[in-house]
């Protein structure tokens, strides 16, 4: 018998990053304003300076709200990404939540939340608590831990719970970067693409992080100090985002029997002028096209569980155009997990194993 209360359902909150409510300058401005004033995302500015810079310059300029007749860069990209179902990140989040809820059955109550914009963590938490759940499993939809993503979700959940008299049993999922269930789905999706020998090279492209944040999160003075610091994972770097990304790559590559010279781990979406985790995906693509004559590249995006701006547009359109200019033919994207039944089954399996004690 578990120690905790076992009355009511087990609550589950699936949490992703968030996306604008609409592809308009006003909505993109609201989204970027909330996202980029998070001190875990832009971590090197004092609070007031960050508010002024983000809300006064970065968000208005990127969204284009400063000029009502001309959408800014980010808004244009969101307009390109938008489908009849809206933003894919939110659409697939909703579909997956419904499917996971149906598969888990009556013992569970499953909600979707977004760290920024809607549906908010606050609303999802209130709904779960109003149902008198016996406990809550907070499951960020980020396979690898970063302070800017998972850490921020955890902090927000704790901030909201800290206001309440009763703090229910809460489990915070940290990461699942090499869980066999997850690795299997990425590998199966790649197998569905066809014979991998048709590709000159395979790129595993992860969202980047400023090197400063990797160092800050490193209590063991390991990252950028020890040679090949992220090439293996152990006690000293078990929570390092970059090391976890490399571990995800190795696990997928092992599953697909890929030799190490067939693939590269790289990082995308750099913002600002500081150095981010390297190598940058765009540099890897340039090198393969210009110096090694690569024509076809296969690209995995294992930091994302659904189509989003960074996969569909940044890699699928922007990097693709550059690659062709450099003499390449095409970059094929391994489809994201989206609402793939194998991904739903993987989530159900991970949730069940995390809550086995509570749902006895
Ligand atoms: C692994 C997941 C992610 C990490 C780590 C991450 C860090 C990070 N991101 C920014 C700045 C931006 N990210 C933007 C979009 C975006 N980021 C992620 C995931 C991670 N970000 C996703 C899934 C998305 C797309 C959301 C969607 O709606 O499709 C954007 C907005 C787009 C733009 O204006 O270019 C910004 C800005 C920083 C600064 C950062 C770490 C410090
Ligand atoms: Fe991002
Ligand atoms: Fe490292």
Automatic annotation (TrEMBL):
Catalytic reaction annotation: heme b + 2 H(+) = protoporphyrin IX + Fe(2+); Fe-coproporphyrin III + 2 H(+) = coproporphyrin III + Fe(2+)
InterPro entries hit by this protein: Ferrochelatase, Ferrochelatase_C, Ferrochelatase_N
Residue numbers binding Fe(2+): 207, 310
Keyword Isomerase: no
GO cellular component: cytoplasm
Metabolic or biological pathway, per its Swiss-Prot or TrEMBL entry: Porphyrin-containing compound metabolism; protoheme biosynthesis; protoheme from protoporphyrin-IX: step 1/1
Enzyme nomenclature, EC number: 4.98.1.1
CDD domains, per the entry: Ferrochelatase_C, Ferrochelatase_N
Keywords: Cytoplasm, Heme biosynthesis, Iron, Lyase, Metal-binding, Porphyrin biosynthesis
GO biological process, one term: heme biosynthetic process
Cell compartments where the protein resides: Cytoplasm
Main location class: cytoplasm
MF terms in GO: ferrochelatase activity; metal ion binding
Superkingdom of the source species: Bacteria
Pfam families documented for this protein: Ferrochelatase
Function as written in the Swiss-Prot or TrEMBL entry: Catalyzes the ferrous insertion into protoporphyrin IX.
Family matches, as HAMAP family: Ferrochelatase
Family: Belongs to the ferrochelatase family.
Protein name per UniProt: Ferrochelatase
Organism: Neolewinella xylanilytica
């Amino acid at each position: 018998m578990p120690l905790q209360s076992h009355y009511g359902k087990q609550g589950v909150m699936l949490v992703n990053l968030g996306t604008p409510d609409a592809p308009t300058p006003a909505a993109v401005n609201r989204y970027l304003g909330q996202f980029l004033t998070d001190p875990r995302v832009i971590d090197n500015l004092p609070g007031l300076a960050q508010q002024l810079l983000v809300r006064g310059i970065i968000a208005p300029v990127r969204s284009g709200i400063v000029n009502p007749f001309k959408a800014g860069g980010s808004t244009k990209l969101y307009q390109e990404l938008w489908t009849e179902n809206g933003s894919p990140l939110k659409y697939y989040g909703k579909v997956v939540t419904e499917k996971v809820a149906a598969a888990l059955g009556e013992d569970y109550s499953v909600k979707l939340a977004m760290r920024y914009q809607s549906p908010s963590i606050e609303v999802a938490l209130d709904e779960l608590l109003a149902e008198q759940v016996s406990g809550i499993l907070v499951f960020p939809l980020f396979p690898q831990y970063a302070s800017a993503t998972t850490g921020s979700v955890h902090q927000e959940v704790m901030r909201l719970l800290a206001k309440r008299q009763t703090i229910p049993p809460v489990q915070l999922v940290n990461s699942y970067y090499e869980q066999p269930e997850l690795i299997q789905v990425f590998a199966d999706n790649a197998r569905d693409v066809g014979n991998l020998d048709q590709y000159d090279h395979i790129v595993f492209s992860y969202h980047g992080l400023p090197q400063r944040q990797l160092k800050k999160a490193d209590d063991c003075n390991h990252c950028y100090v020890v040679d090949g610091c992220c090439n293996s994972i152990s006690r000293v770097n078990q929570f390092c985002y970059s090391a976890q990304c490399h571990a995800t790559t190795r696990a997928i590559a092992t599953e697909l029997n890929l030799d190490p010279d067939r693939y590269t781990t790289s990082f995308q979406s750099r913002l600002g002028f500081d150095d981010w985790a390297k190598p940058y995906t765009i540099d890897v693509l340039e090198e393969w096209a210009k110096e090694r004559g690569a024509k076809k590249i296969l690209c995995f995006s294992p930091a994302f569980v659904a189509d989003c701006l960074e996969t569909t547009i940044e890699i699928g359109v922007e990097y693709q155009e550059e690659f062709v200019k450099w003499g390449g033919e095409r970059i094929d994207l391994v489809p994201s997990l989206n609402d793939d039944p194998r991904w739903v089954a993987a989530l159900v399996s991970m949730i069940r194993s995390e809550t086995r004690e509570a749902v006895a």
